[in-house]
Amino acid sequence: MSKTETQKVSIDERSKDQDLARNRSDGTGQFLTTDQGIRVEHTDDSLRAGTRGPTLLEDFHFREKMMRFDHERIPERVVHARGAAAHGYFQVYESQAKYTKAAFLQDPSQKTPVFVRFSTVAGSRGSADTARDVRGFAVKFYTQEGNFDLVGNNIPVFFIQDGIKFPDVIHAVKPEPHHEMPQAASAHDSFWDFVSLVPETAHMVMWVMSDRALPRSYRMMEGFGVHTFRFVNDKGVSRFVKFHWKPLLGVHSLVWDESQKLGGKDPDYHRRDLWEAIEQGDFPEYELGVQIIEEADAAKLGIELLDATKLVPEELVPVQRIGKLTLNRNPTNYFAETEQVAYCTANIVPGIDFTDDPLMQARLFSYLDTQLTRLGGPNFTEIPINRPIAPVHNHQQDGFHRQTINTGRANYHPNSLGGGCPMMASTRQGGFAHFPEKVAGEKTRVRSQSFADHFSQAAMFFRSMSPPEQQHIIEALRFELGKVEIPEIRKRVIEEILAKIDGTLAAQVALGVGVPAPKAVASPKSVIDASPALSIESMPKTSIKTRRIAALVADGVDAAALQELQAEMKRQGAQVKVIAKHLGTVTAAGGQAVPVDKSANTTASIEYDAVFVPGGAVSVETLKRDGDARHFILEAYRHYKAIGASKEGVGLLKACGLDTGAPGIVADPGGAGTVATAFVDAIKKHRHWDRKDTESIPA
Ligand code: HDE
């Protein structure tokens, strides 16, 4: 076997699709059959003794159909149960040979197929997408050297430092055991009880109370590998690496009131958004970023790299963008692909390796273990979505539902009967060899002193936020602790956690939840005072691509104004949805029929990034009398969204009591056409936090 034998598997963007095609089944033009391939001549009545008699046991078609239905469910994931996924590919910008020998990071012309699943953590499979929660961001790379799974989140740190505490934190956040409430929510006693007693949660708690826990879209959130990994090059040199995903559409969030309402009006909000974007050809893109840290420099950083409650600020170690992930194909079948996919942190390829982070070490056990139950035994690696494109040959055998038919007699190693095959690969031939890290020490359950600081980065995170983002954190904590029934827990969170992060934060939250303000203590210092890269508000907001704009219309609308808006939004890559009382068409002032996309009773302002009211005297008079239309405008205002109006449309904003000079309102009473550009700029800002009066809005 030559050195490059493993690389002979040539991979391109379509490789996994072609592999999955082997298992696809299309019933078009086919006869309905039983599982045994027997054609069925009647499936709507069971076989019975007489037309009014009992069903006969010999009805094999009925029994098979019912048996299969009875066994359709498998256990949902114990965490990250609710998710949505897509296929795509990854392409490196230039060879990373200097850092890693991983084959998929060498050749810029190669597209490596991927399957990416996004998820919430706490809710069950049928819960709502927009809960306040961490989002999973799991990527399976089907590389020529086997599968590499980067199983990350949209938050760069975690609640705990040691995986042995994972069952505790998850039990605490999941619905309480006696009555199984609340669903997909951390706002309850057991979660905050845990937080109040476990100070290492402080940093992550700040993140989940921030806007990061309310992404506008899976397409508009960052991803993080969280742990420190290793890159190992072909000389055997190891460097520490932290992985990042940077969305090309920028990072954007919802507001809390909007998230809660979406949970009822469209629980599939993120799933739908991902699906529709891909169907429309707006392929989500993320750049893969790496922070590389020389082993020799690790100690100088002043940050414990093995502590997953810590991040390395980008200002200290810049993120180098080394390649791009593109999601361009929706799954064919939710269960077969999104539900059955099994990510595992232990799936790595030569050139990438683990560190001793105790959280990561625990994960190396947990994923495979949980999948044995969830997917019914060890042969789940043969399920089409999980099987690698790289060839698989070994002595594993048997077990439930074995697919592979191994040939020959030699199912052991070493053997002579099979000519010694399958054989070992040297590292030169692509064999995986663990990085020979030196380890020594006494067996102990003692945690290193270097893990003892729990508050400095929590404080840095809070200091890095813009004033509106800080306010959102305060309001989130007031909501969450406001739902906590036992006063001692509220008090303990404020005194033992928040007061140690920031005195003003603690006092503000205390005020909201009826707890006396704690004694002010100095906010702890961190390696750098603030990391601007952590603030969503400080990130560039350069485009409105793929944004959804609602246009409110009725009979008599000014069709030219509407068309002008539609044309401009199309130029910008955004889309306009025309909303009226009823589906069908409205008749414009000039008599033309204007198609309606959504009827008012099936949609709401929370599903859009901005709203526009075109002119047309009769249309606007109708909207003024329509409570749904007024609510639409007021709710969008309350959620800080851009609102545009031209000609008579401005009258609707006034009728809603809005100041047309308020931030983010673009009113063009003369209809000179300037509204389009100014409106685009207003949408680009995403939210207009400088509105002062939103709390007075009854929406
Ligand atoms: Fe997971 N996690 N996790 N996790 N995790 C699972 O594996 C676990 C952690 C993450 O879309 C489970 O197959 C332990 C951090 C994602 O299918 C389970 C610990 C991060 C997904 C499990 C952690 C994650 C999971 C449940 C602490 C971000 C969904 C079902 C030591 C870096 C993947 C499954 C998908 C799923 C265990 C902590 C991300 C139980 C023990 C930190 C994105 O094995």
TrEMBL record:
Q: Chloroplast as a keyword?
A: no
Q: Which InterPro entries match?
A: Catalase, Catalase_AS, Catalase_clade2, Catalase_clade2_helical, Catalase_core, Catalase_haem_BS, Catalase_immune_responsive, Catalase_large_C
Polar residues bias located where?
A: 26-36
- Where composition is biased (Basic and acidic residues), the residues are 10-25, 38-47
Which BP terms in the Gene Ontology apply to this protein?
hydrogen peroxide catabolic process; response to oxidative stress
Please give the Pfam families that the UniProt record associates with this protein: Catalase (PF00199), Catalase-rel (PF06628), Catalase_C (PF18011)
Q: What are the GO cellular component annotations?
A: cytosol
Residues at the catalytic site: 80, 153
Please indicate which superkingdom the organism of origin belongs to. Bacteria
Q: Which residues form the Catalase core domain?
A: 33-421
Residues of the region (Disordered) are 1-50
Q: Which reaction does it catalyse?
A: 2 H2O2 = O2 + 2 H2O
Indicate whether Ribosomal protein appears among the record's keywords.
no
Which top-level enzyme class is recorded in the Swiss-Prot or TrEMBL entry? oxidoreductase
Instruction: Report a single Gene Ontology molecular function.
Output: catalase activity
For the ligand (heme), the binding residues are: 77, 117, 166, 363, 367, 374
> What EC number(s) does this enzyme carry?
1.11.1.6
Swiss-Prot/TrEMBL cofactor(s): heme
Q: Which UniProt keywords apply?
A: Heme, Hydrogen peroxide, Iron, Metal-binding, Oxidoreductase, Peroxidase
Give the UniProt family note.
Answer: Belongs to the catalase family. HPII subfamily.
Role description: Decomposes hydrogen peroxide into water and oxygen; serves to protect cells from the toxic effects of hydrogen peroxide.
Q: What is the official name of this protein in its record?
A: Catalase
Phylogenetic classification of the source organism: Bacteria, Pseudomonadati, Myxococcota, Myxococcia, Myxococcales
